[in-house]
Amino acid sequence: NAGVMQNPRHLVRRRGQEARLRCSPMKGHSHVYWYRQLPEEGLKFMVYLQKENIIDESGMPKERFSAEFPKEGPSILRIQQVVRGDSAAYFCASSPPPPESCSFGPGTRLTVL
Amino acid sequence: ELKVEQNPLFLSMQEGKNYTIYCNYSTTSDRLYWYRQDPGKSLESLFVLLSNGAVKQEGRLMASLDTKARLSTLHITAAVHDLSATYFCAVGTGNQFYFGTGTSLTVIP
């Protein structure tokens, strides 16, 4: 059973470009979470999705950030018009219904030049 | 908003010593998770605690949960170098996971 998969693992963008981060949850997991981690900091919750539904996006910046988890295909975190402050590691996690723990992907390290 | 606090944030300990990391949270929950993160890596699940008084042990690590006190502890026994990592607790409520700030542990010879 493959774990949570994220791609790309590293992404470099120039200011103003778009970044698209992909996450394929573990087989059988219907819940997907996105977290952001800045260097030397903890995990900041961004958004929680189930198939075709955004359940909680309270951690998402109001502008430039969006997320989706379509019926088919991976979950996508999209950052438009990136700025240097968007540079971070973005982790996706998936879980079955609680109380199981969530499993994390390897992360996408975004660098904005 | 549920708050999860860990202390200490940074811990430097000698090999062979014992220490405890604390995780306090602000609202009722009976699900508590511990994760380990090595530098530049992802998070690895260590323990899942699902009831008051739950205790789990794996090697030199032991985790416990007191839901009445809203407190979980991660106890390290006779630390060794390869335990150096950042440890996160996370509180589960509904379908959500709320993470603490992490404790960066360095074990020195």
Structure description:
The complex is a heterodimer of chains A (113) and B (109). Chain A has strands spanning 5-7, 10-13, 19-24, 31-37, 43-50, 53-56, 65-68, 75-79, 88-95, 103-104, 108-112. Chain A has 113 residues and is an all-beta fold. In chain A, strands 2, 4, 5, 6, 9, 10 and 11 form a 7-stranded mixed sheet that branches. Chain A has a 4-stranded antiparallel sheet with strand order 1-3-8-7, with no helix packed on it. Chain A is globular. Chain A starts with a strand and ends with a strand. Chain B contains no helices and 11 strands. The mean pLDDT of chain B is 93. At the A-B interface, strand 4, strand 5, strand 9 and strand 10 of A face strand 4, strand 5 and strand 10 of B.
**Mean pLDDT, all residues of chain B:** 93
The percentage helix of chain B is under 10%
**Model regions low in confidence, pLDDT < 50 over at least 5 residues of chain A:** none
DSSP strand tally of chain A: 11
Summing up helix and strand content along with how strands pair, one would put the structural category of chain A as: mainly beta
Uncertain segments of chain B are none
What count of helical segments of chain A does DSSP give? 0
- Main β-sheet description of chain A: 7 strands, mixed
Largest sheet of chain B: 6 strands, mixed
